[in-house]
């Protein structure tokens, strides 16, 4: 079931983890973009104010410098106090555009002349021009726009680069938080998977979140209805079979006594026919009791036990009480055989039904091979192969194969019910693997020693 849920689908944990991590990343990026826009605006205001401040401070100084100069027709370069990079430069011109004074790096920016007073953006420069002495002296301060863009970009990158560490941390934190939050839900899922024919008890719902409470209540209600239906079915089967045993046994005893007393051949044949019918009815009631046990609980023992001694008892009983049991060939890997927590009585019913089915439907001139290894219990018999369409339905109650022998059609159904309830796997093959004919039933018993029964199909 868990495999089916995972194939082709995305788990809720992964959806929540990826969604929250991507959401945090998207919000962080959006916040970085908004912060960058705001920062760009604020940087423009700060640098524009600096341009204006430089121009206004330089204007009176430049006027004094020009007045004190002997030759006012040549441009004078203001030497830097120390080597540094000038982000803001300035140039002083007269009304005709003739350059009177400039900073050390002004020539690199190629500040255009003829700019009107105020702020201007031209040729990749941001400029501010201030006029003085009735417009005869103009001071222009300039800054490269690439400097502003670099400053904004560095500020944005300072906000964005932590994402490289934030995203993995966010994914880990979200995954851990979701895992802890969904812990009760996952436990609820596992509890549902563990339910089967042998365990239909209500699921604990105390730790589930409020959103899952209606689902848990509905599942428990469904389990309750299913448990009631199965208990009613098993109770009816068991009670019917049990109540039939005594009158059938009494009727059979009276019929056998009648057969012994009758002298008339015709009446004797009728009495023997009645005796045969009563024997078949007795076997059917026994099979119904076995089916009720197989579909009920108690298939798993509290302690593991070896299965080989149980199989020997079944073989000995069959050899004493059944015709054709001399055809049995038993192969055991060891004296004790595999150790399993499968209930010994349940294994005895399983083995008996598989062996009886092979003796009844197999070729009477060929042996029935019973093999018990550490991993598999196999029963094989010779005979014509069973068509695949019939093989798929043989484990249904009252379903028989193409053979015309007598039988109730419950043997394989009982074996399949025990395997489902105990977490075993029953494989039916016809013809026998590697041969051209025959029938083989294989029970993989290793899974029974690993824990509780798997959920019923």
Automatic annotation (TrEMBL):
Residues 239-449 form the Histidine kinase domain. SMART domains: HAMP, HATPase_c, HisKA. Gene3D superfamilies: 1.10.287.130, Histidine kinase-like ATPase, C-terminal domain (3.30.565.10), Sensor protein qsec (1.20.5.1040). Its main location: membrane. CDD domains: HATPase, HisKA. Residues 179-231 form the HAMP domain. It is a multi-pass membrane protein. The chain crosses the membrane at residues 20-39, 155-178. Keywords: ATP-binding, Kinase, Membrane, Nucleotide-binding, Phosphoprotein, Transferase, Transmembrane, Transmembrane helix, Two-component regulatory system. It catalyses: ATP + protein L-histidine = ADP + protein N-phospho-L-histidine. GO terms for molecular function: ATP binding; phosphorelay sensor kinase activity. It is an enzyme of class 2 (transferase). It is found in: Membrane. Its EC number is 2.7.13.3. One of its GO terms (cellular component) is plasma membrane. This is histidine kinase.
């Amino acid at each position: 079931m868990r495999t089916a849920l995972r194939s082709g689908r995305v788990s809720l944990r992964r959806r929540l983890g990826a969604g929250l991590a991507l959401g945090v990343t998207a919000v962080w990026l959006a916040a970085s973009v908004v912060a960058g826009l705001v920062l760009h605006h604020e940087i423009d205001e700060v640098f524009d104010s600096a341009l204006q401040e430089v121009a206004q401070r330089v204007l009176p100084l430049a006027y004094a410098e020009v007045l004190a100069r002997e030759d006012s027709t040549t441009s004078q370069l203001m030497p830097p106090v120390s080597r540094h990079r000038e982000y803001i430069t300035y140039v002083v011109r007269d009304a005709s555009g003739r350059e009177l004074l400039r900073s050390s790096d002004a020539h690199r920016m190629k500040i255009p002349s003829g700019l009107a007073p105020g702020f201007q953006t031209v040729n990749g420069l941001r400029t501010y021009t201030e006029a003085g002495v009735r417009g005869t002296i103009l001071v222009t301060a300039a800054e490269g726009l690439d400097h502003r863009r670099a400053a904004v970009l560095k500020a944005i990158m300072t906000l964005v680069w932590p994402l490289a560490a934030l995203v993995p941390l966010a994914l880990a934190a979200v995954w851990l938080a979701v895992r802890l939050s969904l812990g009760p839900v996952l436990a609820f899922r596992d509890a549902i998977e563990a339910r089967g024919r042998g365990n239909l008890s209500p699921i604990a719902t105390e730790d589930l979140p409020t959103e899952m409470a209606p689902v848990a209540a509905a599942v428990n209600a469904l389990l309750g209805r299913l448990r009631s239906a199965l208990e009613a079915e098993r109770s009816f089967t068991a009670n019917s079979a049990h109540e039939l045993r005594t009158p059938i046994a009494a009727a059979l005893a009276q019929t056998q006594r009648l057969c012994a007393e009758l002298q008339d051949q015709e009446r004797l044949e009728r009495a023997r026919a009645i005796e045969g019918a009563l024997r078949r009815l007795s076997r059917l009631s026994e099979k119904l009791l076995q089916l009720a046990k197989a579909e009920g609980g108690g298939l798993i023992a509290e302690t593991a036990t070896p299965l080989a001694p149980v199989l020997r008892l079944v073989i000995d009983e069959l050899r004493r009480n059944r015709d054709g049991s001399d055809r049995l060939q038993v192969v055991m890997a060891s004296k004790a055989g595999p150790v399993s927590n499968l209930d010994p009585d349940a294994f005895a019913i399983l083995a008996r039904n598989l062996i009886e089915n092979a003796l009844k439907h197999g070729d009477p001139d060929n042996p029935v091979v019973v093999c018990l290894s550490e991993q598999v219990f196999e029963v094989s018999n010779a005979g014509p192969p069973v068509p695949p369409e019939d093989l798929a339905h043989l484990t249904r109650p009252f379903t028989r194969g193409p053979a015309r022998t007598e039988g109730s059609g419950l043997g394989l159904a009982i074996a399949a019910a025990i395997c489902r309830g105990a977490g075993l796997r029953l494989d039916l093959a016809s013809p026998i693997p590697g041969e051209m004919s025959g029938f083989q039933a294989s029970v993989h018993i290793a899974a029974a020693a690993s824990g509780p029964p798997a959920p019923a199909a």
